[in-house]
Amino acid sequence: MTALSTDTPTKPTHSPAELREKQDRRRAMGLLTPGLLWMSLFMVLPMCMVVYVSFWTQTTFAVESTLTTASWERFLSSSTYLSAIGTTLRVWAIVLVATVVVGYPVALFIGLFVRNKTFQTALLVACVIPFWTSFLIRVIAWRPMLGTEGAINVILMKLGIISEPLTFLLFSEFSVLVGMTQIYCVFMVGPITFMLGRIDPSVIEAARDLGASFGTIFRRIILPLSLPGVMVGSIFVSVMVLGEFATAASLSGRKVNLLGNIIVSQVGSLKWAFAAVAGVVLTIIITAVIALALRIVDLRKEM
């Protein structure tokens, strides 16, 4: 009598490393899910809706859901709105350079030359103090400074530097640039200070011992190591400046027309389709600027 042997299939076994990898993957997905849902509901979905509305049919006092490219054709064929894009990009570029020029020396002093952590914190808090007041108050406060009878003109006339008030200081593009630079400079100071504070002092001391001058140390060590902070600050400043409308409206006397001002005026006129077109164009510009900054410096690698 022969015994029959039956081969029973065996379940594949996973190694402990594979099981841990699967658990880590499930845990990562669980952590990412709330953020992905939030981004989908409050960023991706609204942006898709804005793009959809930009193709609606806009009449004088109403908007219909019939799809058309009339609003896009009107925007792209109008010299006024194309000029607004150019003005927005010009103001953004000047303010970005100005915040770097003004903010980098401040960050260099706080992050590199001040080694006392308490004093560093106090200086950073001093930079943030203006944010304890309303944004509009900080913007409007420049009017008595830049006006024809403002503090700057009065001081210059008393010193004999000028014989009559300077009229270009207020209600011009210059006043908008000054206001935006002052308001957003702190967003450049913070990230650069953080990156400078991470530099090991022994590296700079070693360069000095080898006879390197401060210019060489700055060019070969400090600047490359602080570049990620400059890029982060540039992204912060760019996003806020490109979407600006309040500073231009308050300090330029509506002489400087930015894309943000067009969106506000079109929404106020109930021209939703045309406002959506301007919003999509502005979003494309902001996305391109951020993508360019991320291509210059790989923040995931440097941070």
For the termini, the CA-CA separation is: 75 Å
CATH top level assignment: Mainly Alpha
Sheet with most strands: strand arrangement: 1-2
Number of helices, counting only DSSP H or I runs of 4 residues or more: 15
Secondary-structure-derived class: mainly alpha
Which outline best applies?
A: flat
Hey, roughly how much beta strand do the residues contain?
under 5%
At CATH level 2, the architecture is: Orthogonal Bundle
CATH superfamily: MetI-like
Rg (C-alpha, Å): 28 Å
Bin the helical content.
over 70%
The topology string of helices and strands comes to: HEEHHHHHHHHHHHHHH
Low-confidence stretches: 1-5
Major pleated sheet = 2 strands, antiparallel
Give the helix/strand layout.
Elements: H1 16-53, E1 56-58, E2 63-67, H2 70-77, H3 79-113, H4 117-128, H5 135-140, H6 143-146, H7 151-158, H8 173-184, H9 186-197, H10 201-209, H11 214-242, H12 246-251, H13 259-268, H14 272-296, H15 299-302
Antiparallel strand pairs: 1-2
Helix pairs in contact: 1-14, 3-8, 3-9, 3-11, 9-11, 11-14, 13-14
What does this structure look like?
The structure is a single chain. The chain has a two-stranded antiparallel ribbon. It has helices at residues 16-53, 70-77, 79-113, 117-128, 135-140, 143-146, 151-158, 173-184, 186-197, 201-209, 214-242, 246-251, 259-268, 272-296, 299-302; strands at 56-58, 63-67. A hairpin with a 4-residue loop joins β1 (56-58) and β2. The protein has a single domain, classed as MetI-like (MetI-like fold, Orthogonal Bundle), CATH 1.10.3720. The chain is mainly α and 303 residues long. α3 (79-113) crosses α11 and α9 packs antiparallel against α11 (214-242). The protein is flat and about 70 Å long. Mean pLDDT is 88; it is low at 1-5. It is built from 15 helices and two strands.
